[in-house]
Design goal:
Length: 255
């Protein structure tokens, strides 16, 4: 799904990535590690901002192939836990829209700070948890096929920390508990214009979409896709003007 993911998500992620890199301030010695780099949006923004070296790490080789197309200089397939770097390697560490998916959040944060130099900066972007009319429409139709309880369970398994990290206070608490000081968090709003087809393809590559497809089987899945597209055509203009909110956080490693 890496090609669909990049096509549908990169235009949404790129302005956030630029702001995340900007909030990390000027490049410093040691370069930047982007954990959960996906198709390399944050890593590419960091390179454009003058950071050297930039290392993008992700578990997915197909995602990293797309990151390579963005000419990210150093790419590594690996996990956020047991990072293959020595202590205090990097001047900055970043993670965009990935923290909520880590099964062991505290362990992952500990390891990301382990490879960060003293006084280095850690930056993260998370979704702010506001559903819009498009999300509610897609989800209500999905619930009719799988029930709300089943889909909620699948989402909790795929993104166990999404609700916690979409709350400003709880995000700050998690970062301070990991060992960061001077933590600041900004809530920012963005707007993207996307075609209905790209929006729906993005929904299909989400955790809920992948779960639903696997549960329904081919015939019911195609029926669901057809009904959703008809509902969107009848209710919304094409392209969609989508507004989304994020939390962008930065903190300093004190030890």
């Amino acid at each position: 799904m890496a090609d669909v993911y990049d096509r549908t998500r990169a235009p949404v992620h790129e302005p956030v990535a630029r702001d995340l890199v900007a909030i990390l301030d000027q490049p410093v010695d040691g370069g930047l590690l982007d954990v959960g780099t996906g198709t390399g949006v944050v890593a590419a923004a960091a390179q454009a901002g003058g950071w050297r070296p930039v290392v993008g790490l992700d578990r997915s080789l197909p995602m990293l192939a797309w990151a390579r197309s963005r000419e990210v200089s150093h790419l590594l397939c690996g996990s956020a836990i047991d990072l293959p770097f020595r202590d205090a390697t990097f001047g900055a560490v970043a993670s965009q829209f990935a923290l909520h998916t880590f099964p062991k959040l505290e362990t992952a944060l500990f390891d990301m700070l382990r490879v960060l130099r003293r006084e280095g900066r850690f930056g993260a972007a998370t979704w702010a948890g506001q559903d819009d009319e498009f999300t509610r429409t897609w989800r209500s139709m999905a619930d009719a096929y799988a029930t709300k309880e089943v889909l909620d369970g699948a989402l909790r398994q795929a993104a166990p920390w999404q609700q916690r990290l979409s709350d400003r206070g709880q995000l700050e608490e998690a970062l301070r508990s990991a060992g960061l000081r001077n933590v600041t968090i900004e809530r920012r709003e963005y707007r993207a214009t996307v075609s209905q087809e790209d929006y729906l393809l993005g929904r299909e590559t989400s955790a809920a979409g992948r779960f639903l497809r696997g549960m329904l089987g081919d015939a019911l899945w195609e029926r669901f896709r057809s009904e959703v597209r008809e509902a969107f055509r009848s209710r919304f203009a094409d392209p969609l003007g989508d507004t989304y909110e994020t939390l962008i956080a930065v903190g300093i490693k004190s030890e």
